[in-house]
Amino acid sequence: MASESSKVASLRDIAEETGVSIRTVRRALEGTGSTSAEARERVTEVAERLGYRPNLVARALRTGRTMEVGAVLGEVSELHMTKLRAFEERLREAGYSLFVLFGRRDRSGADPTRQVLDRLVQRAPMGVAFFGGLDLDMTEAIRETEAAGLPYMLLDHRGESGDVIGIRREEGVYEAIHYLARSGRRTIAYFGTDDRTRLDGYERAMAELGREPIIVINPEADPADLEPLLALQPRPDALQVSSDVLALKVLAQLHERGIAVPREIAVIGFDDRELTALSWPALTTLAQPNRDVGRTAAEVLLSKMGGDEPPAGGWSQRLPMRLVVRESA
Amino acid sequence: MASESSKVASLRDIAEETGVSIRTVRRALEGTGSTSAEARERVTEVAERLGYRPNLVARALRTGRTMEVGAVLGEVSELHMTKLRAFEERLREAGYSLFVLFGRRDRSGADPTRQVLDRLVQRAPMGVAFFGGLDLDMTEAIRETEAAGLPYMLLDHRGESGDVIGIRREEGVYEAIHYLARSGRRTIAYFGTDDRTRLDGYERAMAELGREPIIVINPEADPADLEPLLALQPRPDALQVSSDVLALKVLAQLHERGIAVPREIAVIGFDDRELTALSWPALTTLAQPNRDVGRTAAEVLLSKMGGDEPPAGGWSQRLPMRLVVRESA
DNA sequence: CTGAAAGCGCTTACAG
DNA sequence: CTGAAAGCGCTTACAG
């Protein structure tokens, strides 16, 4: 069955069938350069009939350009899949194909960096993208990638180095806090991980508002840790939480205690996970510009692959977040 | 910079450096066949020093085997990304690379089938996978894929034809209804889309229980449509909802009306979306075996690509769902 | 145990 | 306007 696959037509097949040279077939098909009308007509007719498609592998070998880009994926979430889609669609427009590799620890817990990079480099892509949430040693990954002469781009990485399309987290939280203040909230607290950029945004806004910051670091969102916050006098009437996942846990805790959201306490999340629009009440949150991150990363990578000089500020960019106001704040 | 990429070493480079023929280099590197110890030693040393990696493009051209598999992706969700990861990891073990293409309508609304298939076929993969939620004309897609002699596999497709790794939805819902009955629920209703397989499972279980089915078809989950259900005498004390997204909307509606979940009404969702574990109350739901679907699809595709004969029942398989009991039922 | 050579299907100077 | 030929880096009979 599969082995019966009829042989695909090559330029030579068309040349033999039409009686002209392979060189002429190419020019006729390409449309560039001059060809006699008669040759062109016969060639296109035969190519059509034989269902000719150029063999990309042969072309890649000859030109040294595989027209492939490799993406290393980490975390599984619709956020990253949205970035991936925008990234792939932009690359496809430019004639590139995207192959993917998941770079995470397997059961054994062994560092996958070597294996993933070997695979990546061996496939000889023209560029590489590293998505977020990877289990890789990124310093080594970037070094290896550059050593192999491969242009690369990071999408939304936390690390401090490398060319990255990032997100303005600090600014996002800063604006959310101001929104809460404008909505009349008096006592605004921060709850969640100790991610520096989020805290910076929170602290900057609170300083501008002339208010004392109230920060509870609690990466696990252990319900018990909400207690000290709720025991404060006056009790906070607004919470900026460091992620949507955590915010949903907080909502459940507030419901358990019979505290009304947003009447008694307003809650703002972070990420805009798809399902948070359906929580009760619907979560107000900071949306990551996933499509923009994907598309911009493709754009910049295309530029690097094209040999462009980096712009004055370097290749990195940081894109703004968007406050999505729903019901919880 | 990128253009400065040092040339990669080829077999010929190693041959010249060591003074043996290219043929000998290959045998020494491969380890198969016999080679003089001396030749093997020198060759491996030089290969190591030059950082030799076989050029996969050249190999593909020569052998006619690209060692690539193409995946066409549709819906963006962590469910599909989980399938994709399992699929890719299994293929990678077997030496294949996976490239991806998103097949969905663009703004213009034009049918993407042609464009996506052209890209796919042109890349000359050795196999193809179609993921769920595609905007493609699948009948044409399968026909074209087979016409090109490409083994393919569908992952969790609703269509009635084609080789597919599917999910036993009917059985999943059937078991959920029995679980509700065992938990002492008297009046169990179905709410959601008119998907036949889910309804079949619901109706089969209800028939076995000797109870009258109560079905409200409401794909949009318009809140108002919950009214007739809640007005029934006796009022349902359990709801099987057709998806987690819909179930979350239902939860919010019940909260709005002050109806306690699960005390007054139990709710079971469908899909096990990541964030439903965090709803209030945490949603009991039917989990899709995403990793298994991905891995099994890879396994079967590998088998098809290897030219195996189809098993007696055909290539298709349907995998069981798992009831994840949390708080809502 | 080893070498010389053909060929996968393109693209690209080079000649006429 | 067209043709003959080289070569990308492999793999694979074929000879010795």
Keywords:
homodimer; 329 residues; alpha/beta; 434 Repressor (Amino-terminal Domain); Rossmann fold; 3 domains; six-stranded parallel sheet; four-stranded parallel sheet; 12 strands; elongated; disordered N terminus; DNA-binding
Describe it for me?
Chain A has twelve helices and twelve strands. The first copy, chain A, has 329 residues and is an alpha/beta fold. Chain A has three domains: 2-54, lambda repressor-like DNA-binding domains (434 Repressor (Amino-terminal Domain)), CATH 1.10.260.40; 67-167 and 291-319, Rossmann fold (3-Layer(aba) Sandwich); 169-287, Response regulator (Rossmann fold, 3-Layer(aba) Sandwich), CATH 3.40.50.2300. In chain A, helix 5 (78-93) links the parallel strand 1 (68-73) and strand 2 (97-102). Chain A is elongated and about 90 Å long. Residues 1-5 of chain A have low confidence and may be disordered. Chains A and B meet through helix 4, helix 5, strand 2, helix 6 and helix 11 of A and helix 4, helix 5, strand 2, helix 6 and helix 11 of B. Chain A binds a DNA duplex (16 and 16 nucleotides) through residues 10-12, 20-24, 26-27, 33-36, 39, 54-64.
Supply the number of helical segments of chain A. 12
Strand content of chain A: 5-15%
Low-confidence parts of chain A, pLDDT < 50 over ≥5 residues? 1-5
Superfamily (CATH H level) name of the largest domain in chain A = Response regulator
Oligomer: homodimer
Q: How far is the first residue's CA from the last residue's CA of chain A?
A: 61 Å
Order of helices and strands of chain A: HHHHEHEHEHEEHEHEHEHEEHEE
The greatest interface between two protein chains, and residues involved on each side, is: A-B, 64 and 64 residues
